Amino acid sequence: MTDTSDFERLLREMEAYAAEHHVPIINENGRQVFLSVIRDLRPHRVLEIGTAIGYSVLLLAANGAADAHVTTLELSEERAALAHGFIARSPYADRIEILQGDAGELLTKLAGPYDFVFIDAAKGQYVDYFEKVQPLLTADATIVADNVLFRGYVMGEEKAPRRYRTIVKRLRRYIELTSHAAGYETEIFERGDGLAVSRRCPAASGANESRESSEEYHT
Fold first, then answer.
1. Do 169 and 125 contact (CB within 8 A), yes or no?
2. Which of 23, 56, 139, 148 has its CA 20 to 30 A from that of 123?
3. CA–CA separation, 154 and 171 (whole Å)
4. At what angle do helices 77-88 and 55-63 cross, to 10 degrees?
5. Residue 143's beta-bridge partner residues?
6. What is the pLDDT of residues 135-158, one digit of tens each?
7. Can you tell me the distance from the alpha carbon of 162 to that of 138, in angstroms, rounded to the nearest whole number?
8. 150 or 2, which is more confident?
9. Pick from 188, 138, 129, 145: nearest CA to 26
10. How do 137-146 and 195-200 pair as beta strands?
11. Is the preceding omega at residue 113 within 30 degrees of 0, hence cis?
């Protein structure tokens, strides 16, 4: 696979596979915000937590810096193998590394530094992931987390069903944490299922800042 049209066909195939087999990938609305952030920053060393079938890691590799290298973590051995198959058919196979195992454990073994982190794994573990990546980041790193509004329950008025209450509680904690973390500015975009973009700001001098955009969910 060497040209853009082949790569686009691969992405469409992956989208169809995800829809047919109910594999969660970043949806179309959230994807536009996701891509705009990547294209604006053009990160060089990227860490992804939650590979699934490899769809978002290919977007990261394709839209990051020309020398972008992505390390992606996946718990499921089956999905890691599936992602490897898709990635091998792309022009970016030599710039993507898949590590299979529990992300919470793998994060303690990585060296970094990473200038971009994408979190799209177990929603109840987002706070743990955020805390564990801190020693791995560059001074100006950006952390993006998907699904932070979780079907509208996190910031909406509708009460979450019992089976989702722990996830919703922990995602609220994640938003609270990133919105007040020293040296970070965080935006919450409503598109898709909610995308949190937390930018490290070396010049913030420890101030707790939370910047709102026109698409931010106002509390």
1. no
2. 139
3. 7
4. 40
5. 117, 198
6. 999 999 999 998 787 655 566 667
7. 39
8. 150
9. 145
10. antiparallel
11. yes
The secondary structure of the chain in percent helix, strand, coil, rounded to multiples of 5, reads 45, 20, 35
As a whole number of angstroms, the distance between CA 184 and CA 203 comes to: 10
Q: What amino acid is encoded at 154 in this protein?
A: V
Structural contact between residues 192 and 210, judged by C-beta atoms closer than 8 angstroms:
no
Look up residue 187 and give its two tokens.
């935006």
Q: Extract the tokens encoding 73.
A: 């973590």
For residue 161, what pLDDT band results from cuts at 50, 70 and 90? low
Q: What values do phi and psi take at 181, rounded to 5?
A: -65, 130
Assess contact for 146 and 163: CB atoms under 8 A: no
- pLDDT for 159 equals 75
pLDDT (0 to 100) of residue 164: 66
| Global pTM value | 0.86
The residue whose two tokens read 């805390």 is 131
Strand 96-100 with 195-200, pairing: unpaired
